[in-house]
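Two proteins, back to back. First:
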Amino acid sequence: MDTDQTLSVSKGVFIFKNDFKASKKQSKHKKKSVCQTNTLFSSNMWYQHYRSLWDVIEEEIHILNDNLFSSVLSNLINFVKTSHNDVVNEIPTAALFTGINMPDHGAQFESLSKQLRETTPHVAYLQSQDCQNIKYLMENMINEFVNGDLKDDSFDVVKSHIRKTQLNMAILKCWYMDLYEDSKKKPLAVIIPDFESFNPSVLQRFILIISCYLKDLPFVLIFGIATDMNALHGTLPYKVSSKIRVKVFNSQRSIEYLNNVLEKVFFSNVCPFQLGGRVFNLFMELFLFYDLSVNNFIRNIKYACADHFTYGNAMALCNLSKYVNQETIQEFTEDDFETVRQLPSFKKLVESESKDIQVKLLVDNDYLSEVLYQKICDIQTYIQLLHLFLRCLLVLVEDLPRAPLGKQVRELYAIATVKKITETSEYLECMKLLNFQSKDELCVKLTRIVEILASNEVPKNDEIKQFVKILSIYLKNLESIGVNDFEETMEECEDNTKPVDLKVASRTQLRQKLLEMTQQPNKSLTKYEKLREEIIKNISDTFKKFLMEPESRYFHEIFFYNNISIKNYIIGSHRSAIHNALNDPQFYLQCECCELANPTSINPTMPDICIAYKLHLEYGKMINLYDWLQSFLSIVDPDVDTQQTAKIFIKPELQARFTQAVAELEHLGFIKSSKRKTDHVQRLTWGG
C-alpha cells in the first residue's frame, strides 16, 4: 500500500473500499433489526406492549389494503395481460381515477406495480419530478426496462450495463426483440401515477413517439388521474388522443377507505386502544377539511397511541387479552401501582367505597391489583359491547330522514364517546321516526340486528343471548300479523273514532286545539302499531344499558385517549415555534450557554441569527443596516468600541456572520429589501 495516500496533518482513519457490496435485503434487514432492538425504551414494559400492539395494527391495515385494492387491481392486471392479444392500432391505456386530494395513491400504485410484475416483468414507474422534459422521461423509462432485473420463470436473469445517457428507442427495440426471439411477448407497462403533474407537451411527445413503435413494442399505459376525464381530454389534443385507446377504472374514495379502516381495524377486537370523542373529532376534522389522507389519519392515531403508552407501565394493561393483563399486573412495581392511583377515575372509585375499602385501595397493592384486574375485564367487555351495539344502532338509524345520528359508525362513535348517546336529542328524534317504520322495513332491520348480535365475539354474555331470543320472538310475531289482522283492527278504530269539533275563531286557537289532540293518548292503535311500539321501547332500553359513555367506567383512561392537547403537536403553531426558537434558543437547544437571565437579554454565545432577530425586534418598520451591524458587533465583540466603529477596521468574519444572519432572516420572511432606501430593510412581521 502506498503510504503517500495516508499522509495527513491530523490523525484519522483511512478506509480503502474493495468491490464488495452488501445486498440490499441484508442491509435493510440489518437496519431494521438494529432499530427494533436498540431503542431507548426497549426495556420498558409500556414500550414493549405498544410496539407489539402497533405491529398487529399495521399488519391488519396491510391485509385490509390488499383486500380493498384487489378488485380494482385484478381488473387492471387482466387489462394489461389481454391488451395485446389481438392486433392493436392504438396504445392500450388504463385511466385509473384515484380521487381528488387523496395523497394515499402511493400505496395503491406500489401494490399495482408489485402485482403487475407477476404478470409482466417489464414495468416502468415514472413520476413527474423525474421527467421534466422528454429526454429525461425516455431515459428513465428505457433504463427501467433495459437495466432493470428481469425475474421470470421463462428467462434467466438478464441485466444490461448500458449507460443511461446512451439509451434510446432503437436500443430498447433491439433488446426486446432479442429477449423474445422465440417466445410469447409480454407487454411493456408504463405507470404514470400523477398524470396532472406532468408537463402536457412532454406527455404529448411521449405518446407520439411510442405509438410509432407499437407494432414491435407492445406498450401499455396506466395513468393515475386524481380529477376526472376532462383532465385527460384537456391535456391531450386530438392528434395525440387518437393514438391511445382508453379504458376507465375507478378506485375507492378516500372517505370510504377511511370507513373501512376504522370499522375493520380500530373499531374491532384487534385494537384495544380507543380514541376519546374530542381527539377523534379533531382527527376527523383534519381528514375532512385538510388533506383527505388516510395515511395521515393513521399516523395521527399512531402518535396518540405512543403518547398514551408513555404515561407509564399502567398503560401496558391496554390489551384485550385477560391472560396477558393478569401477567402484566403481577409484574407491576410500587411505582407502577402509584401511577395507577394517579388516574382521575381512581379518585372516583375511592370516593364511592367505604372507609375500610378506601384504605385498602390506597395502601394495599395486592388488593388494588385484584380490583384493577376486575375493572380492566369490565372495560374490555364494555369496549366490545360498545362497538357491537353501535353497529346495531346504525342499522336502525342510517336510512332515517335527515339522518339525525349520521350514516356511519364513526359518526355514532364520535357522539357515544363524548356523552351518553341515548340521552341526546338526535337519538330521541330517531326513536320517534322509527315509530313510522313499515312492517317490512322493521323486519329487515330486526333480522340484521339479530345477525350482528348472533355473530358477536363477546364471550359468555347471557344478556345478549336473551336479547337475541326476544328479538327472534318479535320477528315471528311481526311475520304472523296478516292482512286480516290489519283490516279487523282498522274497523275497530273506525267504530271507536269520534268526530272532532274543530270550530275555532282564529289560527292561534286552531293550533292550540291540534296540540292538545296530539298530547292525548291514542287508544285506537292497530295490532302492528302496538307491537312496533313495544319492540322499539325494548330495543331502546337495551341501548340505554350498553351505550354508556367511557367516563362511566373506572380506569377508562387505560384504554381511552382523550388528551386534546395533542392538537398542538399534530397541527402545530409554526409562527410561535419559530419565534420561541429565535427569541429563546435554549428552549430547543437545552444548552447552558444560551440560558437567559431575563427574556429581553441577549448573550454573545447565542446563534448569530438569534442575536440579529432579537435586535431587529427593537426597531420600527424600517431598519438601518449600519445601525443594526453596530448593535450586532457590540454584542458579538464587546471589546470593540461601537462609537469608534467608523475609525476601526471591522473584522471580515464578523461582517460575514452578520450578513449571513440577515440573509437567513430574509429567507424566513421576517424582513425584505427596501426599494425606498438601499441601506435599509423593511420588517414584515410583529409590528412591521
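And the second protein:
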Amino acid sequence: MGAYVNPIYPYKSPADLMSTPPQRKPLIVIGAGPVGLAAAIDARLQGLEVLVLDDDKTVSVGSRAVCYAKRSLEILDRLGIANQACDMGVSWNIGRTFLEEDEVYQFNLVPEAGHKRPGMINLQQYHVEEMLIARALELGADIRWQHKVTAVTPHDAHATLTVETPEGPFDIEADWLVVADGARSPIRRHLGLDIEGRVFQDRFLIADVIMKADYPAERWFWFDPPFHPNQSVLLHKQSNNVWRIDFQLGWDADPEEEKKPEKVIPRLQAMLGDDRPFELEWVSIYTFQCRRMTDFRHGRVLFVGDAAHQVSPFGARGANSGFQDADDLMWKLALVIKGQASEKLLDTYAHDRQFAADENIMNSTRSTDFITPKSRTSKTFRNQVLALAKHHPFARKLVNSGRLSMPSFLTDSVLNTPDADSFEGQMVPGAPMDDAPVQVNGRDAWLLDQVGKGFQAMLFADAPPKPEVLAQLNALAGCSPAIPGANPPKNAVAVTPLIISPRALDIPGMNVIVDAQGLVAKRYNATPGTTYLLRPDQHVVARWRTLSIDQLQAALARAIGANIGQA
C-alpha cells in the first residue's frame, strides 16, 4: 500500500505573454480543475485557441469529486478520456441504504440494459485531472502553471487580467473569460459578485483509506449504525484500493481535532470491526452548502462549476453539474467567436444552467434535510420512514440518502422548438439524449458516439429516402439563415444528416446507422420519417413526424439564438 504522489507540472516563463500594450487572447480559462480543463478541451475540439491560467503546479489533493455520473462519462467520451477513466475507475449501479444494520432500501442507476456507460464510476479527482491535463496538452491547449490571476477588469468587448508569476506580474486581455476557479472563487469575490443560498449546520469527516477489502462495488449508506450511533456514514470504493468513507460529526465537532489521526483511526477501526491494516491517504472536514450566483454571465466573463454554484456532496452533483456547464457553454461560445451567432446566445447558457443549478440545489437540499434533520418533527418523520421502509415498498421511495446526479432536462430553454406532433417518452425538446446500441459499417457501436459533433438531423427510415428527401438532406450542410448580430450567411451553421434504419441501407454520401435491436426507435418513439434536430451537446431541440426543410431551418435558427431579443 502507498499513498498517491501528486505530479509537478513545469512552470513556463510568461515572457511570450508580456507586452505593452497587453496582448489580446480570444479565450482565457482561469482554473485547471476538472471543469476548467473540460472547457479548454472542448475549446480545442471546436478549433479555438485557449490559454489556461492556474495558480498551482499540480492536481488536487485528496479524492474530492469522486463519483462521476453516466452523463459526465458521456461528455468525457466526446472529450476523449472516458475509456481511460472507466478503465481506472470503479463502475457501479447499485446503492444500498441501511438503518442500523438492516438494509431498508436499494436502487439501480441503470435498470435497463443497452447503455454504453454505467450509472457511476468512482475515481479520485486527481486521476481525472491528470487525464484531462494530458488530453488538453495533446490538443494544443496552452496551460500555464503558477500563473495566479489577481485582478479582472471587465470592459464592454473584453476583460483585462492581472497575472502574478514567479517572474513578476503582467497584464493580458481576453475577448472572453471563463472562470472555473472553484467554490471559493477569488475572481468572483474580487468582482464583488453575489452568491446566495444556505449553509447547513453540520460537519462531515472525509477519510480516504488505503486498504484491501472485499466489499462490493456499491454505494453503502448507513443511518445510525452501531459503529457510529446517532449519525450517518457513507462508503465508496475507489481505484487502487482506496476507500472513501464519510462520517457525520455534528455541528459542534471541532474540525481541527477531528482531523487528527488519533481521532480518525478509532472511528475506522470501529467501522471495520477487524484488525486489517489500513493507511490514511487524506482527511478533510466539510459542511453542506447549497448556493449559487444570481447570474452566471457578466458580459464577457462567464462562470462555470463550483465558482458559479455549490451543492452538498451527497448526490454527487458538484463536478457532474460542472461538466454539464462546460458542455452547454462551449458550443455556444464557439459559435459566437466564429461569428455564427450573436453573443446574446450566451444569455441562454446563463438561463439554462441557472435552471439546472436550482434543480440540483433543490434535490441536494432535500437530501440534506433528510440526512441531517434540524427539528424533532423532521427527525421523527425520517426515522419513521426508515422503519417503514424495512417492510413496506411505498416508504422506500421516501428514503433520501442523497438523490444522485441526473442531467437536467432543459425543457424551458428558449432554444427549443415545441412539439407540433404527438410523441411519447422522455426525448422531449430540451432532453439530454438517451444512448442505445447500434451498428456502424457492420460493427457494434453506440448512438451517442455518433453525435455531439455539431448540429445533426437524425432521420428514421426503413428504406432509402425518396429523391426529394435526399435533396433536402443534402441541403442541410449550410441551411441556417443569416443571424442578426452575426456575420453574413457565408458563416452559416451546418447540420449533418444522420439516418437511423433497422437494416443496412446503401445511400451514397449519407451516414447510415443500423438500429439492429430497435432500441433507438423505441427510446425516441420513432416511426419511419421521424426527424430529430440535435444540439452539439447531445440535447434534443426539436422533433417532427416528417422532415420539412422549412421547419428544420426555423428550428435551427431558434437553436442558435436568432430569435433572442426580437420583438
